[in-house]
Design goal:
The chain is of the alpha/beta class. It has eight helices and 19 strands. It has one domain. The protein has a ten-stranded mixed β-sheet, covered by helices on one side. The protein has a nine-stranded mixed β-sheet with strand order 3-4-6-8-10-12-14-16-18. The protein is globular and about 70 Å long.
């Protein structure tokens, strides 16, 4: 990657986009691909993983709709390109607008465009800069003031070819709005995929955004970076659950600014890894105002020679008094050859806060396995039952009943298919 590649996004070198892309490319060239030299990437060497880079993807026409997994307003992105003909644009309720990312960035009168850029500028990180420099397509979903969307909106990202895709989705909830989004990342290749995806969300005052992320795929050569940039205003709420069942070398990073008072964020997830998978979850929550709350609750199940990373950092600024922050990471190792890296951190500059973090790593209880097998279950069935019980805590704490039911069912499907044991 010695220079930016020609993409269909190049016609957006207008309205200041050219300078944004050039600045991002300049920063990326200075730092290069993330490696262990960066503290936040010390366990995940993306530079080494990307020794062989796939060519940039191109638009392919699809005549059939991908099968539906749930009832939703679906927006389809395949190999880096938005497909309006496969999306439910005509089904979106009043007060919900969906724009191709090109149209979103070209509209100089769109305040959400400038808010998104402001959030982007607050976190300059090599993989995010690379996404900005080589961005292909994506969608922006804007929900008007006071609008409550009843049915979930699905952001469906399908990777069907062995190439490199750079995508970005933007969610903007105006004051008092509420919505649920399902982010589906599905790798359907057999030989692997490379992708860099960014989800940028702005939640205005008294608004609520719920996000469920479902990552799946069986190609062990897949290399992917998924970033979430988030800004929460006064009295706003954001909750997210992720089920990571995708194979390969994957980094999912979340950077959230609780910018105003009484902002609340709840992040949780379950990771299943096997074979030589490397799955990294990195989170940074920045409390910038008083009375803000953050909760992080993650579970990991590792087998074979896989490795999983959990890095969680809670920052409490001096002005963020009366902050509450809780972070928990628990892992079960099903193999002596699997490796769990856990690095929870607290950086507190205020004196009236309530913050804690905890991390545990262990194995399945052999007595419990023996008890279940003595009652007629096979080793696989007994293992799956204990894994389901272990993973149930973050799932049962999902507030949205639809998400809770969907992700519990999805976990059962993954376990029945032999993942991760």
């Amino acid at each position: 990657m010695s220079q930016p590649l020609e993409t269909p996004f190049d016609d957006m070198y207008i309205c200041g986009v050219s300078q944004i892309r050039d600045d991002a490319w300049g920063r990326f060239k200075h730092q290069g691909l993330p490696s262990r030299k960066l503290e936040s990437w010390r366990y995940t060497d993306l530079k080494t993983a990307l020794r062989n880079v796939y060519p940039l993807g191109s638009r392919v026409k699809y005549d059939s709709f991908p099968p539906r997994e749930h009832e939703s307003h679906r927006l389809v992105i395949i190999d880096g390109f938005f497909h309006p003909e496969l999306s439910d644009l005509n089904d979106l309720p009043q007060g919900v607008r969906c724009l191709n990312i090109k149209s979103f960035l070209a509209d100089q009168d769109n305040e959400a465009r400038y808010d998104a850029h402001a959030i982007l500028q607050k976190k300059q990180e090599p993989s995010i800069d690379l996404n900005t420099a080589l961005l292909q397509e994506g969608v922006a979903v804007i929900i008007d003031q006071g609008v409550s969307v009843a049915k979930p909106i699905e952001l469906l990202l399908i990777f069907s070819n062995s190439n490199f895709s750079f995508t970005r989705n933007i969610i903007h909830l105006h004051q008092g709005a509420s919505a649920r989004f399902i982010e589906t990342v599905k790798d359907t290749t057999l030989t692997g995929k490379q992708f860099n995806h960014l989800l940028l969300a702005n939640v205005e005052s008294n608004a609520r955004l719920d996000l469920g992320s479902n990552l799946s795929g069986q190609a062990d050569q897949t290399i992917g970076a998924l970033s979430v940039l988030l800004s929460l205003a006064e009295n706003s709420q954001f909750s997210s659950f992720s089920l990571v069942g995708i194979r390969g070398f994957i980094r999912r990073q979340i950077y959230a600014n609780l910018a105003k008072k009484n902002a609340k964020i709840h992040l949780s997830g379950v990771t299943l890894s096997k074979s030589d998978d490397h799955i990294d979850t990195t989170i940074e929550i920045d409390h910038l105002a008083e009375n803000s709350t953050s909760i992080e609750n993650f579970r990991s199940i590792l087998s074979d020679r896989s490795s999983v990373v959990f890095q969680g950092k809670i920052i409490v600024r001096s002005e963020a008094q009366h902050t509450s922050g809780q972070m928990t990471s628990k892992a079960i190792l099903l193999s002596d050859n699997s490796t769990m890296y856990s690095k929870p951190e607290l950086e507190i500059m205020a004196d009236d806060v309530k913050c804690s973090h905890g991390s545990t790593i262990g194995q399945l209880d052999k007595d419990q396995l023996f008890y279940l097998m003595a009652r007629g279950l096979s080793l696989q069935e007994a293992t799956n039952l204990l894994i389901e019980s272990f993973a149930s805590d973050p799932i049962l704490n999902i507030e949205d009943d639809y998400f809770k039911s969907f992700f519990h069912g999805r976990l059962i499907e993954l376990l029945a298919s032999g993942a991760p044991a």
